[in-house]
Amino acid sequence: MSSMPATVTRLDPGSEGDSKTALARLWSELDAARSALARGRSPAVVQAAGELMHALGSARVRMELAHAATAFAEGLDERPDAEQWVFFAVAARATLDRAEKSGARTIAVELERLDESFEEAREAVLLLEPEDYKEALAATPPNTRVWWGERARLDAGLREIDLERALGDLAER
Predict the structure, then answer these.
(1) Cα separations (Å) of 19 from 24, 67, 143?
(2) Per residue in 36-85, pLDDT tens?
(3) Dihedral through CA 74, CA 20, CA 18, CA 88, nearest 10?
(4) How far is CA 44 from the centre of its chain?
(5) Phi, psi of 9 (to 5 degrees)
(6) Distance between terminal CA atoms of the chain?
(7) 145: number of Cβ within 10 Å
(8) Sign of the CA dihedral running 23, 134, 153, 157
């Protein structure tokens, strides 16, 4: 798997410097964790997962997700690269979930604390289009009880409502 997907690579030319550099560093951490998972050696997975968790929990990621959540909740214009930050956060969290299940069980408690600390930014995930969200998850089933599963939770609720409406329509016929 490579870096950022083509569908969320829009950057404002004025923000390319710092933001683009920061995102590139974060993506290198994510790529390293994914590579360690692919190789399947537990010590490497644990080390890469720890480094990725540190990257995900950084002040910069927290700030960007907080801005994205506020933009979504209040209908404000989002930062030009907000989707990239959210995509990274979801992709990193999904990768950490796979790492925990693949030998990095020692990160479970810290991962739970990280999830709790991101709860106020759960609406940021809703900035991603459904196809981008699925791509960020990379086939990892999302935990709908925590921030990174918010889109899946809402999408499941909408499907349930659609089903109820369809059944109601059939009953009326």
Answers:
(1) 8, 14, 28
(2) 999 988 899 999 999 999 999 999 999 999 999 999 989 888 888 999 99
(3) 50
(4) 22
(5) -110, 20
(6) 49
(7) 9
(8) positive
Cβ neighbourhood burial of 122 (10 Å; 0-12, 13-18, 19+): buried
Q: In whole angstroms, give the CA distance from residue 37 to residue 39.
A: 5
In three-state secondary structure terms, 112 is helix
Interior/surface letters 1-31, b for 16+ CB within 10 angstroms, e for the rest: eeebbeebeebeeeeeeebeebbeebbebbb
pLDDT tens digits along 111-162: 999 999 999 999 999 999 999 999 999 999 999 999 999 998 888 765 544 4
Pair of tokens at residue 99: 């790492």
Q: If 0-12 CB within 10 Å is exposed, 13-18 middle and 19+ buried, where does residue 34 land?
A: buried
What six digits make up the tokens of 19?
């933001």
| Cβ-proximal residues to 115 (8 Å cutoff; 6+ apart), any chain | 93, 143, 146, 147, 148
The pTM of the full predicted model, rounded to 2 decimals, is 0.80
